[in-house]
Amino acid sequence: MKEDLLHYIWKYKKYPVARIRTTKGHGIVVQASGTHNQLSGPDFFNAKLIIDEQLWAGNVEIHIKSSDWYAHNHEMDTNYDNVILHVVWEDDVAVFRLDGSEVPTLELKNYISDDLLANYKKLVQQRPNRFINCGTDITAISSFSFDNWKERLYFERLERKSEIVVKLLEESNNDWEKVLFIMLLKNFGSKINGDFFFDLGLSIDFSMIRKLKNKPLELEALLFGLSGLLEDDQQPNTYKQELRQTYDYLCRKYELDATVLSKPRFFKLRPSNFPTIRLSQFAQLYAAESSLFNKAIQAETADFYSLFVVPTSTFWETHFTFNKTSKKSVKRTTKKFIDLLVVNTILPLKFCYLRHQGISLDDSFTKPVADIASEKNSIVQKYRTLGLKVNNAKDSQVLLELYTNYCTKNKCLQCAVGVELLTLKT
Q1: Span 177-230, pLDDT tens digits
Q2: Are 286 and 209 in contact (CB under 8 A)?
Q3: Which domain of life is it from (predicted)?
């Protein structure tokens, strides 16, 4: 038995409504089950119950055993003083509030059908080689329910992605341009170097970036120097020497600590994703654009591809590393790369900004992510194999959120899919 099933039973009234009684034999009429609380505090807020012909308004707490009340120290917590009913699977001890009054208890185990328990066990039972618990049934739920759930999941994903944005805003006194700089730099590092580039962004005084606008050489020297990419002089070339001299000048001028604790990785990366290429592109972006934040926030879908398509400096047209010449090619950021910037940086930042400004979100907010092609990865492909349609990046983002925070955590009864499947079977 798990608490999530008891939450489901109480929330959706999967008990014989007309005949439930407290362990003291008092009749219970549920006028309102209450609002399900996923955070700390009682499990359901603002319930309305008639117990022994007396109307009560307050909260409901749910446990496997009554003694869990004491295991969680609720008897000492004033947040539980307004609990009007303790719903448990097994009543093994009487429980009391801080003031000494006893909390009425509903013991569920004698009210729940064997069929419901069997269907729940079947739903959440993990099996070898099974991608997700509901894999064989997920397409059986109504499109209306699934579409609403997908919308909620997308904004849950935005909420999670916005946590780091909120933290950076607090640390920077709401400097939106600085936060964009750090988050963009992180995403220019992609999966392999994202954390390194993020730490690099944190280490840079953003006032320097503002002063180096329209100075791509200085910006590139700063980024390469702080990344430790100018330290190896085994095969010096003119451009690297120029960067090194410029970086030394910037260190003296701005009193920078030139200590390098680590370096970005090249291993397992395609040459187009080498940190040398990405840092050069990033330097060109910030040298070319002023007020990048305002342009990014106001951009429509098509605007992103003109705003963020940037080349490297000329040197990198014939190099991927400092020490080896390659066939000449202009190495611009690609549409696919820009799509990732929009999905992972611009939209979460815009989400925070609009909320900070008190501006309501409408359909236009999700239009860019709906205009972008879906991501291609093994997780999304497995959902496709189950029969789900993945039309765009919004759909793929939703499925990644579903898989990461529900399917892999066995939270079937906190998922609209699991709830509807269990309801259909009972």
Answers
A1: 999 999 999 999 999 999 999 999 999 999 999 999 899 999 999 999 999 999
A2: yes
A3: Bacteria
Alpha-carbon Rg for the chain in angstroms:
28
Instruction: Give dist(CA 212, CA 310) in Å, integer.
Output: 17
Reported residue count of the chain is 426
Q: Where are the domains of the chain?
A: 3-112, 130-171+373-426, 175-355
Contact partners, residue 143, CB within 8 Å, separation at least 6: none
76: left (phi over 0), alpha (psi -120 to 50) or beta: alpha
| CA atoms of 20 and 30, how far apart (whole Å) | 9
Contact in structure between 313 and 302 (CB atoms under 8 Å): no
- Supply 394's token pair: 């919004």
Digit-coded pLDDT (tens) for 357-397: 999 998 899 999 999 999 999 999 999 999 999 999 999 99
| Residue 164 CA: distances (Å) to CA of 183, 200, 399 | 9, 16, 21
List beta partners, residue 46: none
